[in-house]
Design a protein that fits this description.
This protein has about 280 residues and is mainly alpha-helical. It has helices at about 15-35, 45-70, 70-75, 90-110, 115-140, 160-165, 170-190, 200-215, 230-250, 255-265, and strands spanning about 5-10, 10-15, 225, 230.
């Protein structure tokens, strides 16, 4: 594994950046398709505007979240904060900042938030899976040492090679990539099932939090809140909170023309006074 794909003179193409480009391109195509299917007031230009807002916000949020947990180092080396190609992006920070950016975008563009978020989450988790390939080549988001036959020896100059020199480690980034693909398959499969607005988004948060918590048991670079792994603590809060949200808003119910007329007017499923819709 090596972080650089191509180097021609001063031009360097890294796997990390390439995976971002692939994830963004594929995600934009899927989002545009979902926006059309859901009849959202979002043109192709609107999808581009959304990406231009949310992607920088998510990257900045992911970096700041990581830096805050590692301030003992970055406080002494502030210029290293900008070196995102070396790793150090925390997904929880990215999701929080990205969600706030989507909320702001929806308010400005007058697009209902929950249907928009539901259209985004399949692309989001698929992009996370693709991004883990960049982590694999970069040697970050790495695992603990292991003697299992699928343990990987990374180059000594990689982040994991410096953390555990000469040792095989869990391919934690591959574990998470597999789980992300499974979450994507679930979200893509339910998108036409007619669940209430917000259900796919809530299930993304719950399922990804569970996946991240599971992978954390093998991670060697997790952030900590005292003696507790930060992903475990934050994921527990998110799972409890969004499970309560699903039950409170009864998002697990399937919509029908009758439930749209009755349910949406009581604030549980969307806009007041919405016309009847066919099940999706």
């Amino acid at each position: 594994m090596h972080p650089v794909l191509v180097k021609i003179g001063p031009i360097v193409i890294r796997y990390y950046g390439l995976m971002y480009v692939i994830a963004i391109t594929l995600g934009a195509a899927l989002l545009a398709r979902e926006a059309r299917r859901k009849a959202l007031p979002l043109s192709s230009e609107g999808v581009l505007d959304l990406l231009l807002v949310t992607i920088p916000a998510a990257i900045i949020g992911a970096r700041l979240y990581y830096v805050l947990f590692q301030w003992g180092y970055y406080g002494r080396h502030p210029l290293d904060i900008l070196k995102v190609w070396q790793g150090g992006l925390a997904i929880h920070g990215g999701v929080i900042a990205g969600a706030l950016a989507v909320l702001a975008f929806s308010r400005v563009k007058k697009v209902t938030f929950w249907p928009l978020a539901d259209a985004i989450v399949p692309s989001l988790v698929l992009g996370q899976a693709i991004g883990r390939i960049g982590n694999l080549m970069n040697g970050d988001a790495y695992g603990l040492p292991t003697r299992l036959p699928w343990g990987i020896h990374f180059p000594p100059d990689s982040p994991v090679g410096r953390a555990y020199p000469g040792l095989a480690t869990h391919p934690s980034m591959i574990y998470e990539m597999i789980l992300d693909v499974l979450v994507f398959a679930y979200l893509w499969g339910i998108r036409k099932k007619g669940y209430r607005d917000g259900f796919p988004t809530a299930m993304y948060v719950i399922l990804y939090s569970l996946a991240r918590s599971l992978v954390s048991f093998s991670r060697g670079d997790d952030l900590f809140l005292g003696p507790i792994r930060a992903p475990h603590a934050i994921s527990a809060v998110l799972v409890i909170g969004f499970t309560a949200f699903i039950l409170w808003r009864r998002l697990y119910e399937r919509t029908t023309p009758e439930t749209v007329r009755l349910g949406r007017s009581d604030g549980r499923g969307g806009r007041r006074g919405s016309p009847p819709e066919s099940p999706r």
